[in-house]
Amino acid sequence: MATSIPESMRAIVVHEAGGPEVLRLEQRPVPALRPGWSLVRVRARGLNHSEVFTRQGLSPSVRLPRVLGIECVGEVAATTDPLRLPVGQKVVSIMGEMGRAFDGSYADYALLPNEQIHPIESSLPWEALAAIPETCYTAYGSLLNLHLEAGQTVLVRGATSGVGMAFAKLARSMAPGLHLVGTTRSEARTGLLLKGGYDDTVLDLDGTLQVEGRPYQRVLELVGPATLRDTCSHVSAGGIVCSTGQLGGVWYMEDFDPIVDLPSNGFLTSFYSGNVDEERLAGLISYVEEKDVDVGPAAVFSLGHMADAHRFLEGSKGFGKVVVTE
Ligand SMILES: NC(=O)c1ccc[n+]([C@@H]2O[C@H](COP(=O)([O-])OP(=O)(O)OC[C@H]3O[C@@H](n4cnc5c(N)ncnc54)[C@H](OP(=O)(O)O)[C@@H]3O)[C@@H](O)[C@H]2O)c1
């Protein structure tokens, strides 16, 4: 089954690693349908720092030329699963090697495996919808895993990140009465955190927080293994730490003794956006729409200006989602 689909489409193709100028706008054939995959008409896509790294040649597994883009929102244009993914169905897709092992969302159409195409219902404009997957979904999943309760003091380590800012917006709306504290390494950015929904800020200058005792009942750890041990030392008994990010550039821990380092009767959890739970994703989208939660985007570009979008992303230092529309 298919709608009327043109033979060729616009695509942003990277042939060699480099600066934003290597993102070349080209005409390419629209990918042909194959068993188990469906064609999505991409209406908008959120950008991610991982795409900047791939463009720069820092993703060794990615072979060039490649159409980048690890997430998108759009409609099914041609399908091999008409029951779950009928033509015209609104969909979201995230991760699953899109834009890495196979061509991604920086094009008018993307051919994607059916299992990573998720049907959704929403009347949000495309650019608002595109700000939700990945960053906001990661914040939401982490938030649910933290089991927040009114009155708690919650620390977000790496709060100026896209995930940290989305977390503040969602937490404010979903669990009123929290005391939200965010860290940044930069004094100059504390004002932006307060404007973005945080009640208080702590400077995180050398990986050791200058904080007395164990004031936090919940922590979203986005700096990751580089600071997790120090984070745990500030969490009260029975507290929960959700380690979701790796901003500190350290991926594993060697010097962590769970018996000693975890807070007394506490919990350590995580969240991975690659494990998409369709119900959770749909729940997030309808929550954002119904409650009118302002999750972005911070900036919107059109597909023909992808290089400008990458320049903006590289210079934006993480405040809000950058979205590229048609
Ligand atoms: N688990 C998952 O499924 C999942 C999904 C999405 C993202 N993530 C992870 O979540 C984290 C946040 O992602 P994002 O896209 O929101 O990040 P982002 O917007 O790129 O974050 C930028 C922020 O990171 C902070 N930062 C940069 N280097 C740092 C360092 N060495 N130590 C401490 N802070 C540093 C900076 O804060 P200051 O300069 O203000 O300190 C900056 O504002 C990343 O580690 C990402 O990989 C995980």
Give a summary of the structure in a few sentences:
Helices cover 24% and strands 27% of the residues. With 326 residues, the protein is of the alpha/beta class. The protein is globular.
Question: What does this entry look like structurally?
Answer:
This protein has helices spanning 49-55, 126-130, 135-146, 162-174, 190-195, 228-232, 258-261, 278-291, 306-316, and strands at residues 8-14, 23-29, 37-46, 66-67, 71-78, 90-94, 109-113, 117-119, 153-157, 179-184, 200-203, 216-221, 235-243, 267-269, 299-302, 322-325. With 326 residues, it is of the alpha/beta class. The chain is built from 9 helices and 16 strands. 24% of the residues lie in helices and 27% in strands. NADP nicotinamide-adenine-dinucleotide phosphate binds next to helix 3 and helix 4. The site of NADP nicotinamide-adenine-dinucleotide phosphate has 26 residues, from helix 3 and helix 4.
* Shape, principal axes of CA atoms: globular
Q: In terms of per-residue confidence, which ranges show pLDDT below 50 for 5 or more consecutive residues?
A: none
Biggest pleated sheet:
7 strands, mixed
Strand content: 25-35%
Compute the average pLDDT.
94
CA radius of gyration: 20 Å
Could you tell me how far the N terminus lies from the C terminus, measured between alpha carbons in angstroms?
Answer: 24 Å
Task: Please tally the β strands and state the result.
Answer: 16
Q: Please tally the helical runs, counting DSSP H or I stretches of 4 or more residues.
A: 9
